[in-house]
Amino acid sequence: MLVPVLLFLLGFLLLIKGGDWFVDGATGLAHRFHLPELLIGATVVSIGTTLPEVMVSAQAAFQHNSGISYGNAIGSIICNTSLIAALTVAIRPGLVNKKSLRLPVVSFFIAAAVYAFIAYSSGQFQRWQGFILLGMFLVYMIVTVLDMKKHPEDQAAENESEEKPKETALWQELLGLIAGAAAIAVGARLLVDNGTLIAQALGVPNSVIGLTMVALGTSLPELVTAITSLVKGHSALSLGNVIGANLFNIVLVSGAATAISPFAIPMEKTIAGMNASLVVDLPVMFAVMLILCVPAMLKGKLSRWQGVLLLCMYVGFTAFQFLF
């Protein structure tokens, strides 16, 4: 049991460092070839921070492990919202830019509605549905870039708050890109393989491990970003990153996993004979996002009560997964 736990933790570390190396290398190359800042932020960095989830779910899909594949995506959304965003809101609530949040928030709920419709209507995801989710991801990226080009002034404040990248050699950028991708791939394999072993040893379903431990591990890059923003006094900026990451978990992470290996919603855990994924996991996903986003969109600010309530929900959700 000790060896799988150590390898599981090593997988966490490789995912974190691999994500850092990949984003730094990709961003350096993008700057070197004079790609626009808005394009870099909307594509390279956003996708880079979601790579751990993509690789973990893809690895699980290749192994036909639907519990990890499903649990990682949905669990990461719940973790991003009710732990990571909640921490920043509870510690330092602040104003948010309603206009900049409109596109990612609306896009998330459209994608989540499509995902939920498939889950509740058929209980399983077909390969063609995975390609639809991936198509939604491409459409969102295109619309985001076009919107940012049309309203570059909306990005001015965020660009000013970002640190300028240090000059690095071409070989360092290429090495970071390759080493980062390799570390993420190895870390994902360690996380999935040993997460499965831990689940078996503890006698809990794979989906529970995916919804909690794996989801937390793959969400660590977002947690680091949130803490950094908090320390620098830009707590509101991390909200957009969390919502964007949540959207990518549905359309990119779930889409890629489904396109690789179609799967049914796990039935490993039931409540009164009903699938716990349908009566707990998905409703909690919608609830935490509504609690976070609706007041922010209506009032243009975040309140401490939102963070405290979301943290309580995360504790309750995690306890439910292991105790019931």
Secondary structure elements and pairings:
Layout: H1 2-32, H2 37-62, H3 66-91, H4 98-122, E1 124-125, H5 127-150, H6 156-161, H7 170-202, H8 206-218, H9 220-231, H10 237-260, E2 263-264, E3 270-271, E4 274-275, H11 276-299, H12 304-323
Antiparallel strand pairs: 1-2, 3-4
Could you state the CATH homologous superfamily?
NCX, central ion-binding region
Number of helices: 12
Largest sheet: 2 strands, antiparallel
- Sheet-strand content, in percent, reads under 5%
- State the order of secondary-structure elements, H for helix, E for strand: HHHHEHHHHHHEEEHH
State the low-pLDDT regions, or none. Answer: 156-162
* CATH level 1 name: Mainly Alpha
Structural category = mainly alpha
- Here the CATH topology equals A middle domain of Talin 1
How many separate domains make up the residues?
A: 1
- The CATH architecture can be given as Up-down Bundle
Main sheet: strand order = 1-2
Helix content bin: over 70%
Rg (C-alpha, Å): 19 Å
Mean pLDDT figure: 81
What is the approximate shape?
globular
Through-space gap between termini: 23 Å
- Count of β-strands: 4
